[in-house]
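[Structure tokenization] protein backbone as discrete codes
[Encoding] learned vocabulary of local backbone shapes
[Protein] chain in single-letter code, fold in tokens
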Amino acid sequence: MPHWLPYPVPVIGTVIAVVVALGLHFAAAGYVHHATHDHREQYRRRKFFTTIIAFAAGIVIVMLWAHTLKHQGTMIGLIGAGLAIALKEPLLSIAGRLAIFTGHMYTAGDRIELQKMAGDVIDIGFFYTRLLEIGSWISADQYSGRILLIPNSMIFGTPILNYTQHLSLIWDEVVLPITYQSDMEAATRILTEVGTQYTREFLQNAEHDLEQMRHQFLVPQLELKPVVYVKVTSNWLELTLRYVVDPKKRRSASSFIYTEVFKRVSKADSIQIASETMDLTLHRPEAA
């Protein structure tokens, strides 16, 4: 061994560990590229392998250098305990990154909500998950333009809402209030026809996603076709169209449905849209 190296084995071993880790990283990237053509799955697998390789290389390097400090055991133990406390959040974030990929919690491209913060995942780093924010002062789940940085450690003990992971569609509703004198059956028929027109193209894919979910989870019977529900209020009849939609297209979907429904309702003399207005009748006092 060279005499100019105070710790030849740890130094050489560290260099070898780094070189091997880099080699494994590029090998894993090549494997992932050929194993799947789904860009989101490629991203998830690539990040997972990177985390495992980096973690393993870190453990090897620590073990190589551990024996050089064997005579300072007490001091090193105290320092280690202090570092563990000081670096609690970063270490939890790294563990969170591992849990995200191994537990299939979410990946790049998913729309998630965590502690009332929602957005589309654009990157999962070692310490933070980056989201392109939706909502806030912007309505109907559209982008605000801000980037949310959420510590990966937040996934522990916190509910995570994933809009797109297993079932790529969610349910949404539009409401049509009509007067009691209106033709309820005609209005229901219009809502159903427009909802069917909108969902026709992707309903088959939704049924396929639901069938795939049933192979993994105990999923109850769900109705994917548009359905209209009726509710009687003190002022009008409330017709609610429930339909499936891409979570990233809720606003355009409701706009399309309302536009089509109002076009048809305006041509139907038997249907009047209700509103919170009052008719006042004034009576002049009779002359004495």
User: Anything to note?
Assistant: DSSP finds seven helices and eight strands in the chain.
